[in-house]
Amino acid sequence: MMITPTRLGRAVKWLVAGNPAQRRRVRQEMARATAAIFGDFPISEDHKLWRDDKAFLGDFNRMSPENPYSQDRKWTLREYVKLNNALPGDLAECGCYVGTSAFFIAQASTHGKLYLFDSFQGLSAPEATDLNVAESVMPWSEGGGDLTASEATVRHNLARYNSVEILPGWIPERFAEVADREFRLVHIDVDLYQPTRDSLNFFYPRLVKGGVIVMDDYGFKTCPGATRAADELAASEGIQVLHLATGQGVIMKR
After folding, report:
1. How deeply is 22 buried, as exposed, middle or buried, from its count of CB atoms within 10 A (0-12, 13-18, 19+)?
2. In the CATH hierarchy, which top-level class contains the domain 51-252?
3. What's the longest Cα–Cα distance across the chain?
4. Spans of all domains in the chain
5. Of 7, 33, 104, 172, which cross-links 78 as Cys (Cβ 3.0–4.6 Å)?
């Protein structure tokens, strides 16, 4: 977009004395201009309707004040929950951290239990596959323990939802306790190869027809192990992973 004196003057006026939407638009265009100067830089298009959902954004900011980067993934996950409310079955999440994703799953769900699996001791130790990341990517700690949150924090954040059942322990230690259940949606956010593989191998056979597994970290350079685990399952089952622009991956049971 060409920057003319008229556009520049309007931008300055909006930035100084404009309403919140006008100031946001100027900041967005400044970011896009910066991206154009420096080349390939991830700046998203603005004016998306979901960004007007004040209730959603308020809940997100309250739950994740230090992580503004996953709003689109939380929104997408919640939409999948809404879509699958027409199906029978429960819900599950593997890796819940502070409970933000679980909050939106429980909020959107109309029936069934939501089972949460987490060690509450951070991530397990990564394997060689997990550490095979680009030089520009911060590697995982070789001894494990990244992304630790307490069970008490999650219970506090989800206290309003009586559909939630928390099963603390390393994945897959407590999966057997839900072996007799069927699931319409499973959210996997464990970043690493082995826990992602264990989660997929357990829950995919237990999906109802039309049920989905949403993987938070499928399309991220930081999580090559999670990508590999999903691709291996897809190859063995003759199915496809839907790779979303958000970085999520989705598998549907047909």
Report:
1. middle
2. alpha beta
3. 67
4. 5-38, 51-252
5. 104
